[in-house]
Structure formats: structure tokens, C-alpha cells
Write a structure and sequence with these properties.
Number of helices: 1
Largest sheet: 8 strands, antiparallel
Structural class: mainly beta
Length: 121
């Protein structure tokens, strides 16, 4: 679960990120959707070693559109994932939690990356 973005812990909603070996699921409930439910995004992801930046996390949504940013993995422990976007140097901190069933069971369906709801990644 996202607990801090750009050093701000007062987020206007919730975000859950589920990372697999080469796939991700991202559940987002931010802004005008805080009362509507979670929007799911899926796709592929990969971690690669980079001699200049260390481990890089990048991905693409299931429609083939790449994430808005690639991220340097600052730290990954049993309890926390700390990412920094390569281009803007914005830090995202995720705390390891069990994603509640209600988040996965009743997602909101929206057009892919609609103007009003842009995915955080």
C-alpha cells in the first residue's frame, strides 16, 4: 500500500501495488474515485540492473502503453518498497500489506487511462 508520495503522507485515497516476477496489478482509488471504488490496472513489469542507477523497475499496461516513469529501487525489504522516479526524482514508499478482498472483488471499470483517472505509475 502506498504510504508516501513525494514526501507527502496525506494521500487523497489509497493505492495498492501487487508485483509479481513479470506482472503487476495496481489498484487505485484517488481523488474523485475515493467513494466509488478501486480502479485496477494490470500489465507486465521487470526489474533490470543498471550500472548507473542500480535496480530499475519499469513496466507497461496490458494495452501496451508504458508506465509514465521508470523507477530506481531505493530499497526493497520484507516490509517496504521505496521507489524513485528516474526523470522527476519523486519518491514513492509502499508498505507491505495484505490487499483487502473488497479491493480485488469489486473493482471500478473505467476506460484505460481515462483523462479523469490517470494511474499513479
Amino acid at each position: 500500500m502506498l504510504i508516501s508520495w513525494n514526501e507527502d503522507t496525506t494521500l487523497s485515497g489509497r493505492v495498492y501495488l501487487e508485483l509479481g516476477t513479470d506482472r503487476f496489478t495496481f489498484y487505485q482509488q484517488i481523488g474523485n474515485l475515493t467513494s466509488a471504488g478501486y480502479v485496477p490496472y494490470t500489465g507486465t513489469c521487470r526489474m533490470t540492473a543498471d550500472s548507473e542507477n542500480g535496480t530499475i523497475l519499469s513496466g507497461a499496461y496490458s494495452d501496451g502503453e508504458p508506465w509514465a516513469h521508470s523507477y530506481r529501487v531505493e530499497s526493497m525489504t520484507d516490509t517496504e518498497l521505496r521507489l524513485v522516479s528516474l526523470d522527476e526524482q519523486i519518491e514513492s514508499v509502499y508498505e507491505r500489506v495484505v490487499i483487502p478482498d473488497y479491493v480485488k472483488e469489486a473493482p471500478v471499470t473505467l476506460p484505460s487511462r481515462s483523462e479523469s483517472v490517470l494511474p499513479l505509475l
